[in-house]
Amino acid sequence: MERRRFFKSSLAASAAAAGVLTPSMRGAAPQNGPASGREYYQLRRYHLRSGPQSKLLNSYLSDALIPGLNRLGIKPVGVFSQEIGAGNPSVYVLIPSMNVERLVTMDFDLEQDAEYMKAGEKFLQAPATEPAYDRVESSLMLAFEGHPKLTAPAASAGNRSRVFELRTYESPSDRDHRRKIEMFHNGEFEIFKRAGFSQIFYGDTLVGSRMPNLTYMIGFDALTERDAKWKAFFSDPEWKKLSSSSKFAFESIVSNVNNYILTSASYSQI
Q1: pTM greater than the 0.85 cutoff
Q2: Under 8 Å between Cβ of 173 and 237
Q3: Structural domains in the chain, sorted by start
Q4: 78 and 264 in contact (C-beta within 8 Å)?
Q5: Which of 144, 175, 169 is nearest to 251 (CA)?
Q6: Would you say 221 and 161 are in contact if contact means Cβ atoms under 8 Å apart?
Q7: Which of 11, 44, 80, 121 could cross-link 92 (Cys pair, CB 3.0–4.6 Å)?
Q8: Are residues 261 and 82 in contact, defined by beta-carbon separation less than 8 angstroms?
């Protein structure tokens, strides 16, 4: 309990010092408060080896982590297997919350949950000789003002097959990063909608690697739809106008793009 209190107070002090939770945060927060109805996201990426790690991780996520997070009021939780992209095999976990402190301290809260500890015992107590995973990457994001909350695709309700594309845009400077976020608010949301994509979430990375960057997730029912939807996106007259605007085309505001094709786990809530 003392460790948890210390961590919470340290989080608050660090956030204040860094300006993470202030309206001036990277030029992306609204005028009336840090989040003002916008969600925060923790995105985890588990790097695995081929073999038994995958089964152990999936059992932990489905039987321990998701039920435990749901008991903390955190839902829906998404779990996705990487199908295409560098760094396979990998599993992604998307965890949303309106409360940033909840996301940062949830692991400490879960340690107090006897049901979680019992269900996740094999994963949590895996020996160094047989680790449950190789490494975990984690980032903390704040939802874009123009897309303040996660939107699960319609196929999630019936647990139908669904495919996702996870894209991260790195920018060479904070100024360029802010300009790229502006592009979404100046028309890209609508262009994605007209092209037929499901828009799951858009997040500005507050804590993570290779900053400044943003990450977003779009979806479609089948991989065979992807090329046609992107063609519709890039052919949209509004995209051509937006992308050639002097406000956004004065230099390369995106310096690197990471792109991954994911499929939802059978127990995923997104």
Answers
A1: yes
A2: no
A3: 38-264 (3.30.70.100)
A4: yes
A5: 175
A6: yes
A7: 80
A8: yes
